[in-house]
Write a structure and sequence with these properties.
FAD/NAD(P)-binding domain; D-Amino Acid Oxidase, Chain A, domain 2; ten-stranded mixed beta sheet; 17 helices; 18 strands; globular
């Protein structure tokens, strides 16, 4: 089966096509996170010949390491940013309608404490507005006793009750892949492990990019009408070729992953950390329980994968021990960690990181359009703003709100997949669209069985290796699936089965597998587990 059936062209074939002279493009998008993927989708649907380039893997940065929440942002209301909240909530509801199984509604219980702001009445007023902006009615009050019954084993010391509301949860990396799938179905092209080495300038205007193949080191020049820099936390780097201004304030958020059996929750327990009054969430995700997040300036090398530090680890463990003292949770219980760097538009370094606004910004400098900041939830609106900024260079192109669906409606329903588990079938359709049926059909015997406590199976690993531009083992375990974050020791028990899949689908020999295994083990140990010395 050709990889074109799911939209991803062979990476080698696409690079060769570029090298052979396919170099006249309307638009080049730099950055393979959710914003770049959204721009590619919007541009391709408007008939623009568009190429997305990503120097690492799709969703490698912030877009695979968020807090997994597609939410409206309650705290933006308290900051007076009603528009951002409204836009976020409307996009949240759109995503829920269009991609069930990928975007799922989740309940949140925010604990109320005596003397802590906000109290029940002001919080109820905020939630009334929150639901009204979303067009739903989901909020209500939980008494202290009812809250304790809902979260078995939770400490209610100092708790007077809880306010309940809903937002949504997702697999952020799979969201990026699904948007890319839509973009390429509309004619867009994307290539990973390809660096935008520098900008090409002509008479003071950006006229293209110099691309470097990260694997081979080969370079080529690509001319285009416009370049959009959607590199998130790295946005200043490319922009500084035409404007020396520094605007991005990288903020790190870290998370713990614990076994569901050790810390069972059915929805999100939300509270303010006693140390600094920042919101922390304990919530179910992909068969495990996640605790996060921190919010602090990221002063480390931005090109290295972000990692949790000892201070963050203790900060998050403290809140777990406070709420569940009888469980005696320690570092030994932690399955994995992850840390992401948020690209926040900095106002003042003295400002508390948690008080920085989460709006996005778009700048135009000598023909280069740069977009950064914003929220996972509003990626479509951010993409439209970026495309509108590039429109003068692109010629006649309609970039107004079209009302088009983000995702094409699948032609199959959950009852049409070859599985009796309708919930799992909907999950597959949410992540793969119509290709869910092919994914199951292409699986070998036994590859549909769920792995451990997760909802992933080896059939998804085979599909990703065959169709989704997997270059390294970490692409497969940390982004195409999340098995590296959900299984003990990063999933080493799966290595024999994964070796067979990678050798069959990617043509790896034993030497390549050994190199990939060593690379993955080091990445996981350094960046997805406990802090190293």
């Amino acid at each position: 089966m050709s990889a074109n059936r799911v939209g991803f062209r062979s990476r080698e074939a696409l690079w060769q096509s570029l090298a052979d002279g396919d170099r006249d493009w309307d638009l080049v998008v730099v950055g393979g996170g959710i914003i770049g993927a959204g721009i590619l989708r919007e541009a391709a649907r408007r008939g623009l010949k568009t190429l997305l380039v990503e120097q690492r893997d799709y969703a490698w940065g912030t877009s695979s390491r968020s807090s997994k929440m597609v939410h409206g942002g309650l705290r933006y209301i308290s900051h007076g940013d009603i528009k951002l909240t409204r836009d976020s909530l409307q996009e949240r509801e759109r995503l829920l309608r269009e991609a069930p199984g990928l975007i799922d509604r989740m309940g949140y219980h925010f604990t109320l404490r005596k003397g802590q702001f906000p109290g029940r009445i002001p919080f109820s007023m905020v939630l009334w507005l929150y639901d009204k902006l979303a067009g739903i009615k989901d909020h209500r009050y939980f008494s202290r006793e009812k809250f304790a019954q809902h979260y078995r084993g939770v400490s209610v010391e100092g708790v007077t009750g809880a306010m309940y509301y809903t937002d949504t949860v997702t697999d952020d990396a799979r969201l990026v892949l699904r948007v890319l799938q839509e973009a390429m179905a509309a004619g867009g092209e994307a290539i990973n492990y390809t660096r935008a080495q520098s900008l090409i300038k002509q008479q003071g205007q950006v006229a293209g990019v110099v691309l470097q193949n990260v694997d081979s080191g080969a370079q080529l020049e690509l001319r285009c009408k416009a370049v959009i820099n959607a590199t998130g936390a790295w946005a200043d780097r490319l922009r500084n070729e035409v404007n020396p201004e520094k605007r991005i304030r990288p903020l790190r958020g870290s998370h713990l992953v614990l076994p569901r059996q050790k810390l069972p929750v059915t929805d999100s327990l939300s509270l303010l950390h006693p140390e600094d009054k920042r919101p922390v969430f304990i919530f179910p995700w992909e068969g495990a329980t996640v605790v996060g997040t921190t919010d602090l300036d990221h002063g480390d090398d931005i090109d290295a994968e972000a990692s949790i530090n000892t201070r963050e680890l203790e900060y998050l463990l403290h809140i777990v021990r406070l709420m569940y003292p009888a469980l005696d949770i320690t570092e030994d219980d932690i399955i994995s960690t992850w840390s992401g760097v948020r690209p926040v538009i900095g106002s003042d370094k003295s400002t508390d990181p948690s008080k920085e606004r989460r709006d996005h910004a778009v700048w135009v400098d000598g023909g280069l359009v740069t977009v950064s900041g914003g929220k996972l939830t509003t990626f479509r609106l951010i993409a439209l703003d970026a495309l509108a900024a590039a429109a003068p260079a692109l010629g006649p192109v309609a970039v107004k709100e079209s009302g088009d669906a983000i995702f094409r409606a699948p032609s199959i329903g959950a009852d049409q997949l070859d599985t009796a588990d309708r919930g799992w079938a909907q999950r597959l359709i949410g992540r793969y669209g119509d290709h869910a049926r092919e994914l199951l059909a292409e699986a070998s015997a036994g590859e549909r069985q769920l792995i451990g406590d997760t909802l992933f199976c080896l059939a998804e690993c085979r599909w990703a290796a065959r169709h989704e531009s997997v270059v390294h083992l970490d692409d497969l375990l940390l982004r195409r699936t999340r098995l590296g974050s959900l299984l003990e020791q990063g999933g080493v028990a799966l290595f024999p089965a994964l070796q067979a899949i990678c050798e069959a689908e990617l043509g790896w020999d034993d030497a390549r597998w050994q190199a990939e295994e060593a690379r993955y083990r080091e990445i996981w140990r350094q960046h997805y587990y406990l802090p190293t010395a």
